[in-house]
Amino acid sequence: MRPFSLAASLALCVILAGCASKPMMQDGIRVNDPHEAQNRRVHAFNKAVDRRVIGPVANLVSDRDDAPGGAGAMDLVINAGSNLSLPGKVANSLLQGRPEPAIKNFFRFAVNTTLGIGGLMDPAGRDFGLTEHDTDFGETLAVWGVPEGAYLELPVLGPSTQRDAAGKAVDLVIDPLNHLANPGAASAAFGLRVTSKAGERARFGDTVDSVMQDSADSYAQLRLIWLMHRRHELNEGETAIDPYAEAATDDVIDPYSE
């Protein structure tokens, strides 16, 4: 019961904190950002880390993937990292009272872990039509009626809200792999998931750079894009549009998502 007690405590903190501030409007989008000064300091740190560490590492991954004999290596890492996230998504779908996506993600994990050689390949999607249903505990809290709360930018993790920040903490607690695997295996799985994020950063590098490094006010633009995308995911509030429509023709991706 400890994960659920923690979830309830965090949800209560989100509710209490989210009631104390007044939202503003940015390009027709409701923005609740009472901690903007602090968030901008964190954003400056994140921007520097992206420019000096994350971006170069992502480019290195991309360069190696383009080298002779390395074609597809980045995709394999991304596939494996995505596969390891599925047990947590199964748990969240069940907590949301949505058995159908939970069952699909469970069988996707089972097929790709076995036939897909530990998730390196995707026979579940390619041969069985079992596409991934993305979810997290932030969405679980939304389904339970917990309000969004104030906008936050977290160190390294990037854009979030009070509700989603609480969700990230609980996701670590309820992930079945953290309980079923030994500590060494759980640490290796976590490392692989982090590495897969570098691969995703490389795949969408031009789009991320256009927002993070080339914007006149990258904080305001990233905040707007992230809130629009997140609310679209959760069917909350604003009109469902592609927030990257002017920046790229690729699929929408949150460069700091879990």
Automatic annotation (TrEMBL):
Endpoints of the signal sequence: 1-20
InterPro entries in UniProt: MlaA
Sorted UniProt keywords: Lipoprotein, Signal
Coiled coil residues, start to end: none
UniProt family annotation: Belongs to the MlaA family.
Name by which UniProt lists this protein: VacJ family lipoprotein
Organism (species): Paracoccus benzoatiresistens
